[in-house]
Amino acid sequence: MRSNTVRTARRRTLRVAAAALTMAAGLTLTACSGADAGGAKAAGQADAAAAATDVDAGAGASTTVQNGEPQAGSGAKGGAKGDAKTDAKAGASGGQAANSSAAQGERCHTSGLKASFATGGDAAPDPDAEGATTTSIALTNTSGRTCKIGGFPGVDLTSENGGGTWSLVRSSAKYSSITLGPGDTTDFTINLGLAHEGDDGTWMPAYAEITPPNETTSLKVEWPWGPLIDQSAATHPVTFVNPIG
C-alpha cells in the first residue's frame, strides 16, 4: 500500500515538473516571438522613416516614379521649359540679326540713288591742270533703307551734238564697300583732261550717264564743265573713272 502511494506521488511529481517545463518553454518561445516581432516592427518603422527622409530629400530630383513610369520632376520640367524659352529667344535674336545683316548686305539700286556733280566751292576742276584735275560725282541714298555700294560705276559721256558716246575706262585703284543709311551720300571722282574753248580735237559732253555698280540702269546728269581733250579712242586716256569706296 505504501509502495503504491509512493509510485503515485512520484508520477504526479513528474507530470507537474513536465508541465512546468512545457509552460516555461512556451513562455520562452512567446517572449522570443514578442521580441522578434517588436524588433521587426521597430526595424520596419526605421526603414519607413528613412524612406520618408529619402523622398523629402529627393523632392527636387530630376525624375520621380509614377505608375511604374519615369516622369520629369518639377525641377527638370522647369529647367527644360526655361531652356526651351532661352533657345527660342536666342533663335529669334539670331533670326533678327541675320535679317539685319541681310538688309545691310543688300546693294544700293539705281532706283534708290540720286547722282549730282559737286560744283560748289573749290570743286570746279582746274582747266590749266593738264589732266591732273578731277571732278566729283555724289551719290545719295534716297531709298529709305540701308544699302551697300562699292566698286566702279559705269560712266558714259554723251556728246553735245549727239555724235556719239564716250565710255570712260577705269583706273587701277582698289576699293571697298560702303554702307549708306537713308539720306547718306558717298562720291567718286573722274580724272579729267580738260581742253580750252576753241582747241582742235575736243569733245564737249552734254550729259554724263552714271550706272551704279552691278546695276543696268543709269542716272543722267548734265555736264557742268567745259570740253575735254578728245581721247575717246585712246588706250590710256587722261580722262578715266575712279571707284566708289
Features:
four-stranded antiparallel beta sheet, 245 residues
If you had to describe this structure to a student in words, what would you say it looks like?
By secondary structure, the chain is α+β, with helices and mostly antiparallel strands. It contains two helices and 15 strands. The protein has helices spanning about 1-55, 75-105, and strands spanning about 65, 70, 115, 135-140, 145-150, 155-160, 165, 170, 180, 185-190, 200-205, 205-210, 220, 230, 240. Strands 3-4-10-15-8 form a five-stranded mixed sheet, with no helix packed on it. The chain has a four-stranded antiparallel sheet with strand order 7-6-12-13, with no helix packed on it. Strand 6 (about 155-160) and strand 7 form a beta hairpin. It is elongated, with a radius of gyration of 53 Å.
Lateral strand order in the biggest sheet: 3-4-10-15-8
Largest sheet: 5 strands, mixed
What overall geometry do the principal axes of the alpha carbons give?
elongated
DSSP strand count = 15
Strand content: 25-35%
Rounded mean pLDDT score: 71
Listing every helix as H and every strand as E from the N terminus to the C terminus, the arrangement reads: HEEHEEEEEEEEEEEEE
Low-confidence stretches: 1-82, 84-103
The helicity comes to 25-40%
Number of helices: 2
Rg over CA atoms: 53 Å
**Structural class determined from secondary elements:** alpha+beta
End-to-end Cα distance, whole Å, is 149 Å
